[in-house]
Give the backbone structure.
Amino acid sequence: MEAYVQKTPLEKLKPPVTHVGVIGWVRTNLFDGWFNSLLTLLTLYFLWEVVPPLVRWAFIDSVWNTTGAVCRDADGACWSIITTNLRFILFGFYPYDQQWRPLIAILILCGLLFYSRDRNHWNKYFGYGWIIGLVVMGFLMRGGLFGLPGVETTQWGGLPLTLLLSIFGLTAAYPLGVILALGRQSRMRAIKVLCVVYIELIRGVPLISLLFMGSIIFPLFLPEGITINQILRAQVAIILFTAAYIAEVVRGGLQAMARGQYEAAEAIGLNYFLTMRLIILPQALKIVIPPTVSILISAFKDTSLVVIIALWDLLKTTQSTLSNPEWMGFSREAYIFVAILYFLGCFSMANYSRRLEKELSTEDH
Amino acid sequence: MVTDENAIQADASLPEKVPFWLDPQKRAIVYQIGVLCMFGLLAYYLISNTLINLEKQAIATGFSFLNKESSFEIGETVIPYSAASTYGRALVVGALNTLKVSFIGIVITLILGTILGVSRLSSNWLVSKIAAIYIEVMQDIPILLQLFFWYAIFYESLPSPRQALNPVHGLFFCNRGVIFAVPETHPAHQYILLALVIGCIGVYFFRRWAKKRQDATGQALPVFRISIGTIICLPLITWLVFGAPIKMDVPELTGFNFKGGMTLSPEFIALLLGLVLYTAAFVAEVVRAGIQSVSKGQREAAMSIALKPTQVLNLVILPQALRVILPPLTSQMLNLTKNSSLAVAIGFPDFVSVANTTINQTGQSIEGVALIMAVYLIFSLSTSAFMNWYNKKVKLVER
């Protein structure tokens, strides 16, 4: 008997073809056990039933640049309602030959937002840039100077109105929310009670009741002779509403602060105002950036509610287009278009929030 | 706060008296009085303005309008109502409609949201990705837009009652809503309901007894199977005792509309569909986060002490996941209830919609808006009171 000794190196075996590459991936992710296989097959069948007809409806059979009458004979989607009425849907009753102005305002806004994505750009000068940008936008929209014809706010509508309500709503609500959150954490009983009552009251009622209040009751609050335009009243309602939600988010940040931070600040002799401004708020607000962005997202979506009090926002201009006899009956296409606009806005914000969350969490470790 | 007490103690030890403007406690009192005064002045200013304005416009204040005849019809009512009823009754009808759509909506949302949340964590790539896309898309489209969309689908895409779609016997889809067959009214039904209630109460006491017994003797009973069995069997036996009535009230087309069966209006369905599909996306995120919050070690530890898979789920995973899930879940349920107020935009007669009509007819805007706010506040405050009680009950008891 001779002992078996392996003298030559064995050929390196590749992993079985069923466990790597495309097949391996499919096996582990789609056909892992009978239940998953069944699920995959059912899902594939469902997709097969849904996606091709949808693509045919939306792209292949669709019509893009025709009149409403032609649309009625087409099998697919009638995107003509969008292409034909795009300017009205986006800008509402803004004078037709002046519509480049809101367009430029929106572009400036997008540019500023895009530049703000990088947190390295957040400094004092960029803050001034924002203020200048907002003033320029307001001037472009309002006009009345330097040869630009004035446009009354009653004529503002569509996308600029939606953006205006959400951007100003959030910028004004943010400081108010921070003050409310600080008030809620205060040791002074009276201030604390006031803030708690306000926050819980607002968070307990739907936004629509506040909008009603703004549009119906608010005029009664003012002395006679003073009227405030309806956009501003809706804006106030949105601000009051959003502030309560921001207050709750900020409170979360304040509660997450270690006690030692307060004590250390007191130890170096800072008073309440300086403690908050230099020590607590910079840290607390940083923690709550991601939830604040989700408040921004819901504020952006919530501006669509002003359609109920008859402001001409994006949704209202779309509905108005749909009530035109020529385009009646193409709600699906119109609403899908508006949904895509909202989706793009919200999705980019949500994406940004997720990225920020990642950045902020790595900093701590 | 510690710091404040320290300051006061330091004050006490100092020989000379601290002037009052340097004493934080006295300063705080001054601040509070100042804030309260400002608040009071503002309130006084607004209220006096309002009173002057109301007097000028000759609007009566108070809730006496609730007893007047409403003289408007409401399409869907849970309790009997006609145009001759009072405004008060109209508002009750509206509130009940809100509760109805919220309750049904919450039940369906919980089921759909849980399925989506679990699908999102599925090891099946395709299922997980589809759930992710659904969640992302639905979260990013305003609920109002979704309501309009579903409502438009109903009245534009579906045929008139004469050409109603009829996928299965007794079920019709048309632009007047969804009409389906329901069991014909039979005296057995109330007894079946009674049996169900008795079954639930019985199960509650049985579970308590079983738990006590397990604590005392260590023997576990198949509680879940017995509970489910009781809840299903008791009504079933009642149904059989009454001779198993199976006659259905099938809707029939007479003239331009359906007769018989049960009709769900397009407004109701659009509202329900919008609310459920929108909120389910948020619920799915909550459920996913809750499940992910239970660390893997918990499951492994539970399995290593030889618990059965159902026990692992019921005794270890769920109690921990639910503690994370429940608070945000409640706020989603409240959101759904609050969002149901958007019914006013598509014409479903919920509370806000009825209150809005009332305001338009009577001009009692302050009372109307106050009522809307009060009703929703009652909903949300009672829910949060319940949640606080529950949170206290399930709170982690730390050593």
